[in-house]
């Protein structure tokens, strides 16, 4: 039985106030398998009216949900985690079929998503206030922490389950209501599946809602709506800048995790084989369609040739094609037009002097893992976020030039340094203008209890652990005057 035959009818509808309802938008949308091109399902888009209803339901239900005992909130999150374990194979197949995830990537995403839910289950017990001394006699200062109210989450298509749950699970655990607008390419794994899990876990009606539709039609309205206090978005820098501007006009807080032009720096004392293996993984996992993926690999001149040879040898051994094959490392891009875009960039890079050592051809939505060497800093392919299986290798004469090249980008999400001297690696990592840098590891790392976020054009705000608690709650000052206060100048 195919996924199309198994897809529940509810996963073509909006989820509003605990009910699965037909969208009231005018547009009919298709959910496509990026590898086969088959239509998984069609659905009627949400409208502004649907968004109104979803936000109103979240606002109303959150007033009671925030009062729920910590044990109740924890229990819902624990149940979601348990359901994920029970439904693991179903979830993996959804990620493979809907987002083009290879089995390797789907396993990784599932594990990361489940860790987020498990971490969030502890949040109800970690909302702490403070008692602060006062200089006014008889005054008691209390600083309380409470939910912000309603959070709007705009989910991505590349890691749809994990990157949506990264905001949804903490926000709900902390007592907020949530409305998700999933990416149109992955409405199931970035939206309906999450609603299904929380509904099955017993979350009260209205706390979580899903409205799926075209960003061009409802995106601005979703952000500008007067009810949500926070808009969480993961996606491109261009779209994120628009969301940030619109949210700013309405004085809304944002959590923006945007694009990256991430670099790995390989110093002359690095273990070349380990560095090359890490670089291949960090470049080609999920076909490079990861905000943290390596875009640029900057190699010290003394080890440039040996690294190039090892990297190319390892790249040639990668299995490409059907993402459902357990040994496939490089599967399809989300759309065929992405292959065309990358092939144009590859051709331009060669015209500008880069050498193609492997790949450079595509079939359907699959682009062969590609390696370009001797790429210069001024070339267009160096300045772009590639979001595809194209590795760009650059030479640096020394450590200082390597750091300069790594920082020569408006982005600053993640990065990597390879060296046999960990303290040297730490010093170099401190010099790289990036929210996250990993020494002797590649750039794709995410741990639920550790901060996650970028600098410069790679975003605003932090996810994970205590940083998520800070993002999805607010503090307020309430003082109690225990004894009569004298006010100067008043008789």
Keywords:
single chain; 491 residues; alpha/beta; seven-stranded mixed sheet; globular; disordered N terminus
Commentary on this structure:
- With 491 residues, the chain is an alpha/beta fold.
- Helix content is 39%, strand content 21%.
- The chain has helices at 3-6, 48-65, 70-86, 88-99, 103-120, 160-173, 188-201, 215-224, 237-249, 272-284, 304-316, 336-351, 380-383, 399-407, 422-431, 465-472; strands spanning 14-16, 19-21, 28-32, 39-44, 130-132, 139-147, 150-154, 177-181, 208-210, 230-234, 253-257, 262-266, 294-300, 355-358, 362-363, 366-367, 370-373, 390-396, 411-412, 415-418, 438-439, 455-456, 459-460, 473-481.
- The strands form seven sheets. It has a seven-stranded mixed sheet with strand order 14-17-18-13-12-20-21, with helices on both faces.
- Strand 8 (177-181), helix 7 and strand 9 (208-210) form a beta-alpha-beta unit.
- Helix 5 (103-120) runs parallel beside helix 6 (160-173).
């Amino acid at each position: 039985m195919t996924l199309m035959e198994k897809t529940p009818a509810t996963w073509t509808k909006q989820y509003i106030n605990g009910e699965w309802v037909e969208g009231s938008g005018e547009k009919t949308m298709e959910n496509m398998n990026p590898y086969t091109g088959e239509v998984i399902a069609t659905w009627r888009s949400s409208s502004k009216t649907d968004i109104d209803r979803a936000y109103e339901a979240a606002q109303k239900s959150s007033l009671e949900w925030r009062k729920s005992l910590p044990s109740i909130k924890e229990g819902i999150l624990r149940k979601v985690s348990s359901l994920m374990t029970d439904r693991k194979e179903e979830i993996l197949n959804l990620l493979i079929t809907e987002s083009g995830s290879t089995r390797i990537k789907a396993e990784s995403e599932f594990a990361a998503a489940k860790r987020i839910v498990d971490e969030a289950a502890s949040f109800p017990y970690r909302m702490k206030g403070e008692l602060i001394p006062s200089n006014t006699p008889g005054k008691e200062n209390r600083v309380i922490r409470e939910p912000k109210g309603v959070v709007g989450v705009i989910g991505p298509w590349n890691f749809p389950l994990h990157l949506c749950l990264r905001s949804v699970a903490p926000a709900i655990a902390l007592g907020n209501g949530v409305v998700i607008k999933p990416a149109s390419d992955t409405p199931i794994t970035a939206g309906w599946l999450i609603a299904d899990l929380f509904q099955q876990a017993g979350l009260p009606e209205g706390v979580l809602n899903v409205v799926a539709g075209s960003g061009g039609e409802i995106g601005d309205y979703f952000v500008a709506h007067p009810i949500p206090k926070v808009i969480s978005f993961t996606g491109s820098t261009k779209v994120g800048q628009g969301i940030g501007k619109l949210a700013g006009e309405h004085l809304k807080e944002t959590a923006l995790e945007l694009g990256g032009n991430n670099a790995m720096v390989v110093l002359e004392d690095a273990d070349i084989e380990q560095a090359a293996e890490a670089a291949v993984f960090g470049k080609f996992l999920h076909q490079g369609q990861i905000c943290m993926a390596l875009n640029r690999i900057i190699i010290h001149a003394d080890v440039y040739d040996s690294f190039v040879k090892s990297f190319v040898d390892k790249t040639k051994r990668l299995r490409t094609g059907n993402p459902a094959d357990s040994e496939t490392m490089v599967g399809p891009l989300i759309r065929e037009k992405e292959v065309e875009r990358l092939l144009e960039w590859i051709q331009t890079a060669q015209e500008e002097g880069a050498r193609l050592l492997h790949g450079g051809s595509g079939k359907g939505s699959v682009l062969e893992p590609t390696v370009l060497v001797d790429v210069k800093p001024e070339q267009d392919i160096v300045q772009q976020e590639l979001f595809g299986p194209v590795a760009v290798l650059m030479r640096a004469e020394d450590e200082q030039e390597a750091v300069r090249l790594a920082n020569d980008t408006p982005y600053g999400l993640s990065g990597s340094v390879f060296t046999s001297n960990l303290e040297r690696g730490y010093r170099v990592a401190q010099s790289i203008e990036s929210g996250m840098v990993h020494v002797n590891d590649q750039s794709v790392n995410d741990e639920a209890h550790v901060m996650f976020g970028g600098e410069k054009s790679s975003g605003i705000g932090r996810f994970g652990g205590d940083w998520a608690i800070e993002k999805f709650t607010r503090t307020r000052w309430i003082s109690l005057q225990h004894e009569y206060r004298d006010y100067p100048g008043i008789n």
